[in-house]
Amino acid sequence: MVIKVFVATSSGSIAIRKKQQEVVGFLEANKIDFKEFDIAGDEDNRKWMRENVPGEKKPQNGIPLPPQIFNEEQYCGDFDSFFSAKEENIIYSFLGLAPPPGSKVTKSPEEASSLPDGDVAGEAQSTTEGTEKAEESGEHEAQKESDEDAGDLAGSQEKNTKGVTAEGAEGEAEGEEAEEGEEEPGEEGEGDEEEES
Fold first, then answer.
1. Alpha-helix residue ranges (DSSP H) falling in 98-165
2. Nearest-angstrom CA–CA distance, 33 and 5
3. Residue 75 confidence (pLDDT)
4. How far apart are CA 169 and CA 100, in angstroms?
5. Average pLDDT, 10 consecutive residues per value, the chain (197 residues)
6. Radius of gyration (Cα) for the chain, nearest Å?
């Protein structure tokens, strides 16, 4: 069985291109056999995709946007369904594939009650919910990085203060006093005269 991913290689939408890249990249990384079908350059691919996306899965305007994912002739879902399945670690069930040997993926009761169109019972999720999840995870990542950076800064400051001993502090102070004493009184006056000219 080969997974079919319908994409638009010349899409002007950055959002669509990112979604397509995420699906294709995930399938490649997990060594899942798939084939891309370009709907932008091939009218037959576009027609087949539009005819085979179930009516209830089509947007209000009736034209499904890429990426659309099929297992042979069986419809799996769009990007939002793919993203949900990936987040819930049920991607193999979503794709209608058996998990690879040795994987830690186990079938949940929800997966056992798979629906005919490839969706899993209880898995329906709206686009806004998927977007909110993605935004939340991005915010959490940014917060983690910020916390880590603050921790690193505090740690490096601690290390710097530990390296200064009482003798070292006294030695630095004596050195600064000696430098101040090296200046001759006439030097200051000469510098002022040059600035005026």
1. 109-112, 127-162
2. 11
3. 98
4. 63
5. 94 96 97 97 96 93 95 97 97 95 61 47 42 45 47 46 46 48 49 47
6. 31
CA dihedral of 172, 174, 178, 181, whole degrees rounded to 10: 120
Q: For the chain, how long is the longest CA-to-CA vector? A: 95
Other beta carbons less than 10 A from residue 133's beta carbon: 14
Indicate the pTM of the whole model. Answer: 0.55
pLDDT of residue 185: 52
Q: Which of 75, 6, 78, 14 is nearest to 46 (CA)?
A: 6
Query: Which pLDDT value is given to residue 1?
Result: 79
**∠151-87-129 over CA atoms, to 5°?**
95
pLDDT at 73: 96
DSSP 3-state of 143: helix
List strands edge to edge, sheet with 3-7: 34-38, 3-7, 68-71, 74-78
Q: What are phi and psi of 159, to 5 degrees?
A: -60, -40
Pairing of strands 68-71, 34-38: unpaired
Structure tokens of 84? 């949900």
53: CB partners within 8 A, 6+ apart: 64, 68, 75, 78
End-to-end CA distance of the chain: 88
- Which residues face 77 on adjacent strands? 69
In whole angstroms, give the CA distance from residue 9 to residue 149: 39
